[in-house]
Amino acid sequence: MAPLYPQPGQAVPFAFPGVMGLRIGSTDLHLHSALAVGQITADPATGHVSIKGRPVGRARPGGVIVVDVPRADRPGYVTVPAARIVWTVCVGPIPYGARLRHANGRAWDNRLDNLELS
Fold first, then answer.
1. How many domains does the chain have?
2. pLDDT (0 to 100) of residue 30
3. Are 95 and 28 in contact (CB under 8 A)?
4. Closest CA to 102 of 115, 89, 88, 113
5. Is 25:16 a contact under the CB 8 Å cutoff?
6. pLDDT score, position 52
7. What's the CATH number where 105 sits?
8. 4 in a structural domain
9. FRET pair for 10, CA 20 to 30 Å: which of 21, 29, 30, 39?
10. 5 is a domain residue
11. What is the C-alpha separation between 110 and 16, in angstroms, rounded?
């Protein structure tokens, strides 16, 4: 029997136009599942993330803001950087192996215009 969810690195279809078959990591699998059912929203102007309409996120040492996203494969959560959520919601999937960085060097500043792929 085939697994219900794809494995990390496996090509999967997305709900983003023109991005069929992009490879993703395991964290993105859970993120895209939550996006597909409309649980997560992000404001590109402020970089704030909401789950089911409620603002979420907490700071880690170094200032990185992270969000606990519901897992797709079992009960529980997976921790995802807020910057990754903002980029994925506003732009689309992050290519497998690409890194997202903050242009101004401030890890807490997750506005879309401050994020870039490297």
1. 1
2. 77
3. no
4. 115
5. no
6. 87
7. 3.90.75.20
8. no
9. 39
10. no
11. 21
**pLDDT confidence of residue 42:** 92
pLDDT tens digit sequence for 72-109: 778 888 899 999 999 998 998 888 788 899 999 999 99
- Return all residues near 96 (Cβ < 8 A) that are at least 6 apart: 9, 22, 23, 24, 25
| Cross-strand pairs, 103 | none
In sequence order, the β-bridge partners of residue 42 are: 49
Q: What is the pLDDT of residues 63-82, one digit of tens each?
A: 999 999 888 778 888 899 99
- 3-class DSSP assignment, residue 99: coil
With tokens 């709900």, the residue in question is 15
Q: CA-CA distances (angstroms) from residue 90 to 62, 69, 93?
A: 25, 17, 9
Tell me how far apart the alpha carbons of residues 60 and 12 are, in angstroms, rounded to a whole number.
31
50, 40 in Cβ contact below 8 A? yes
- Which residues, other chains included, contact 38 with Cβ-Cβ below 8 Å and sequence gap of 6+? none
Tokens matching residue 38: 């409309």
For CA atoms 9, 15, 16, 18, the dihedral sign is positive
Domain for residue 1, yes or no? no
